[in-house]
Design goal:
single chain; 184 residues; alpha/beta; 7-stranded mixed beta sheet; 5 helices; 32% helix; binds guanosine-5'-diphosphate; binds magnesium ion
Length: 184
C-alpha cells in the first residue's frame, strides 16, 4: 500500500470562466488579469495534504470542448481523446455573472453522465468570480437548489482573483471523492 493516492480531477467549463485561474491559484498562488486562453490540455500534479490525507492531485485543465449531441460517436471519442473518461471527479466551473456559462455546465453534465454511463460520478459545481457578485446572472438560491437538491452535487462559490474559497473548494472536493477506499 502506498503513502498517497492519486486523484484525477477534470476541470471543465465555458471559455473565460476562470478554470485556469482557479488551478493556478491552487497550485502556484498566482493570479493573472490578462486572459490567455488555454489552447491545449494542461496537467498539474501537486502533492497536497487535504483532510489529513496525502494526495497526488492530477488536475486536468481543459480547453473548450464544444457541445456535441449526447451519445454521439464523436462525443465519445472526444471524451476519450482528452483523457477525461477515467477522471475521479469532474469540476464544472461557471462564471456567476454569466447565465450562458451555467447553461453550458448543464450540457457538460449530461455529456458526462451519458459518457460514463453511470450516475454516481462525482461532479462538483463551482461558481467563480464571486468578487463580481453584484453582477450575478442567476440567483444563488436557484443554482444551489438545482445543483445540490436535484443533481445532488457539491456546490461552492469562489474567487480565483482574490484567492477566496480556493483552498476550501479543493477541501470540499476531496470530501466528495472520499467514498473511494483510500486505504487509510
Ligand atoms: P478559463 O478560460 O476558464 O481557463 O479562464 P481563465 O482562468 O483564463 O480566466 C479568464 C479571465 O477571467 C482572465 O482575464 C482572468 O483574469 C479572469 N478571472 C479569473 N478568475 C476570476 C475571478 O475570480 N474574478 C475576476 N474578476 N476575474 C477572474
Ligand atoms: Mg483556461
Amino acid at each position: 500500500d502506498s503513502d498517497y493516492q492519486t486523484v484525477r480531477l477534470a476541470v471543465l467549463g465555458a471559455p473565460g470562466v476562470g478554470k485556469s485561474s482557479i488551478v493556478r491559484q491552487f497550485v502556484m498562488q498566482q493570479f493573472m488579469e490578462e486572459y490567455v486562453p488555454t489552447e491545449q490540455r494542461q496537467i498539474f500534479c501537486p502533492a497536497v495534504i487535504i483532510n489529513e490525507h496525502l494526495y497526488e492531485v492530477r488536475i486536468i485543465d481543459c480547453p473548450y470542448i464544444p457541445y456535441f449531441p449526447v451519445n454521439s460517436l464523436y462525443e465519445w471519442t472526444d471524451f476519450r481523446g482528452y483523457g477525461l473518461r477515467n477522471a475521479t471527479a469532474y469540476v464544472l466551473v461557471y462564471d456567476i455573472t454569466s447565465e450562458e456559462s451555467f447553461e453550458y455546465i448543464k450540457t457538460l453534465r449530461l455529456q458526462i453522465l451519458e459518457s460514463r454511463n453511470r450516475h454516481d460520478v462525482p461532479i462538483f459545481v463551482v461558481g467563480n468570480k464571486h468578487d463580481l457578485a453584484e453582477e450575478r446572472g442567476v440567483p444563488r438560491r436557484e443554482i444551489s437548489n438545482l445543483v445540490k437538491k436535484q443533481w445532488k452535487c457539491g456546490y461552492i462559490e469562489c474567487s480565483a482573483k482574490y484567492n477566496w474559497h480556493i483552498m476550501l473548494l479543493f477541501k470540499e472536493l476531496m470530501k466528495t471523492v472520499d467514498y473511494i477506499d483510500y486505504g487509510h
